[in-house]
Amino acid sequence: MNGDYSLRVRGVRKSFQGNEVVKGADIEIRKGEFFALLGPSGCGKTTLLRMVAGLEVPDQGTVMIGGRDMTHVPAHERPVNMVFQQYALFPHLDVFENAAFGLRVRRTPGPEIKSRVEEALASVRLAGFERRMPAKLSGGQQQRVALARALVNRPELLLLDEPMAALDEKLREDMREELKSLQHRLGVSFLYVTHDQEEALELADRVAVMQSGRIVQIGTPQEVYEAPADAFVADFVGVTNLLAGRVSGTEELLVDAGESRRIWLEVEGVGRLESAADRSWASGAQVAVSLRPERIHVSSSPADGLANRIQGIVERRVFLGSDIHYHVRLAQGALLRAHDTFSPLDPPHDAGAPVWVGWRCEDARVLPG
Fold it and tell me: Which of 157, 245, 294, 362 has the smallest number of CB atoms closer than 10 Å to its CB?
């Protein structure tokens, strides 16, 4: 039912000077959901966000907010607020007045302004900062003022356009935790636009991946990471080894839980591999194989229980504290990235060392070529 959703976008398209930048987008955001729109720069995600905000009008399609058709409703009449990359605080107004700005424009009575601003500032942990000027605030504090200014209007949906892009890495990590905690406490629906895969996976309840104006996959962070819809999603979301291959054989297996598929692949620079598959593939079909680095086991001898075991040479080893990243050159030419956990009881492999790499059938994802 519409009442269960803060946002429903159906078949939305938008062109600029003959260039279609959003190509039939469909998304739904449930009430209280943290929803991330993820994609590279120029894929159309900010344009889609602006159409939800009312700053752009779709050429086709509908935008439903809180169960009402808002496709042609002006931005200032929509139950949404937006937080931009640049927080756009008024430098001559203190924190209280920055947060109160929208309420004063709407001629909200003074006592209500006071109570709502104090409530909003407390929700972003800025109680006691009411008379501080923006120039005296840190980047993270300025971002929280911008959030309070948006939340004070009690929107149905909060729109965030890469709000952490201007922060340094350590502050971004801190603000992610604060933002997720804030959204959970308030129960407001968030539509969060980002090109940062880690940010989307950490924060969102569900993620929509966008490429060249199209939504190519929607799912939970785990679904998008573990079961990418195509090679673009596999390569863009996280780190993967993406290899070209051809199906050389298939087998249907009956197991206790039902039917399972095994396929054999001839993979460029690797050789013959065995893999699980979640769909049927014709023999000879061109495919892409996605293999996450953390699923690859690196050892000095072939590990038992792994369907795929191949010899190689360590070309590079990167020590990252708790993790070790290897670049392993296989005998047939492919370079695989593998991530291992450091243990003092298991000495890492040096550059130039001969090793075996291995993985289970279930660890490789077979995708359309």
Answer: 362
List C-alpha distances in Å: 200 to 166, 222, 258, 287, 341: 17, 11, 34, 27, 24
CA-wise closest residue to 326 among 305, 296, 360: 296
* First-last CA distance in the chain: 38
pLDDT in tens, 266-314: 999 999 999 988 888 888 999 999 999 999 999 999 888 899 999 999 9
Side-by-side strand order, sheet with 364-368: 271-277, 258-267, 241-255, 286-291, 364-368
> What is the rounded CA–CA span in Å between residue 123 and residue 15?
39
As to burial, measured by CB atoms within 10 angstroms (0-12 exposed, 13-18 middle, 19+ buried), residue 95 is buried
CA–CA separation, 115 vs 214, rounded Å? 43
70 vs 79: CA distance, rounded Å: 9
Among the listed residues 31, 28, 58, the one whose alpha carbon sits nearest the alpha carbon of residue 44 = 58
Helix/strand/coil for 51: helix
> What is the per-residue DSSP string for 179-223?
HHHHHHHH--EEEEEES-HHHHHHH-SEEEEEETTEEEEEE-HHH
Entry pTM: 0.87
Q: State CA 234 to chain mean position distance.
A: 12
Rounded (5°) CA angle 33-79-179: 40
Helix, strand or coil for residue 165?
Answer: coil
Q: Beta partners for 189?
A: 157
